[in-house]
Amino acid sequence: MPSAREALSNAPVAGGYRPFRELGPFSVDMDRLFAPWRIEWIKRDLKNPTIDECVFCELPERAADRENRIVARSDRSFVMLNNYPYNPGHVMVIPRVHTGDYGALDDEVVLDHARLKQRTLAAVEEALDVDGFNVGLNLGDAAGGSIDDHVHTHVVPRWAGDTNFMPVVGDTKVIVEAIEATYDQLHDAFAAQEDASVEAEDRAVEFDW
Ligand SMILES: [Zn+2]
């Protein structure tokens, strides 16, 4: 399995697509950066008859963490890989409470979510040798979020000269394999951190702080 850096630099370029590095330093616009999670998999999951309401509420209730790409959990938050990643290692840090209003999160949730975000940055950096991160919330319709009634923070690793992984790679099978490999790498990196425990290989790493 190539490293994320190799996957990006060796990926075939899809027809007509021009990587950022050819476009110069001012080409990374916010729309491109924060729009990709008008995500196919969420559309798919919303069509899934076994999910009645909110995917971010329902998926962590289930035992199938690996299948649902949930890689880490704390008392009040969890980390899930994005199935439509901007880059390899693109994850979301999500409070368990169902609200789209970041300001409505109580202190305990804000602290727990922020701690898990810190741990996520460390795990992704350790696992994928990144050059940087974009971290952020998409709040409100105009911001391009797909799910606007349940707060989620995107953590997107960046490498010098990278480009949008999805249009570059394009092939669903390659992307699924890459996500599964990334899951394992992140699972190992989270499991090596303080306060972490792993009940079973197909379960998320649990943090107790
Ligand atoms: Zn929800």
Provide key terms for this protein:
7 strands, HIT family, subunit A, alpha+beta, binds zinc ion, 209 residues, 8 helices, 7-stranded mixed β-sheet
Strand and helix map with partners:
Layout: H1 4-10, H2 20-23, H3 30-34, H4 40-47, H5 55-58, E1 70-73, E2 77-81, E3 91-95, H6 107-128, E4 132-137, E5 153-158, H7 165-169, H8 172-191, E6 196-197, E7 205-207
Parallel strand pairs: 1-7
Antiparallel strand pairs: 1-2, 2-3, 3-5, 4-5, 6-7
Zinc ion is lined by residues 54, 56-57, 98, 150.
Structural description of this entry:
With 209 residues, the protein is of the alpha+beta class. The protein has a single domain, classed as HIT-like (HIT family, subunit A). It is built from eight helices and seven strands, in the order αααααβββαββααββ. A hairpin with a 3-residue loop joins strand 1 and strand 2. Helix 6 crosses helix 8 (172-191). The radius of gyration is 17 Å and the shape is globular. Mean pLDDT is 80; it is low at 12-47. Zinc ion (ZN) binds at residues 54, 56-57, 98, 150.
CATH level 1 class label:
Alpha Beta
How big is the Rg?
Answer: 17 Å
| Helix segment tally | 8
Do you know the CATH topology? HIT family, subunit A
CATH architecture: 2-Layer Sandwich
> In what range is the share of β-strand residues?
5-15%
- Class per helix and strand makeup: alpha+beta
Care to give the gist of this entry?
By secondary structure, this protein is α+β, with helices and mostly antiparallel strands. Helix content is about 35%, strand content about 15%.
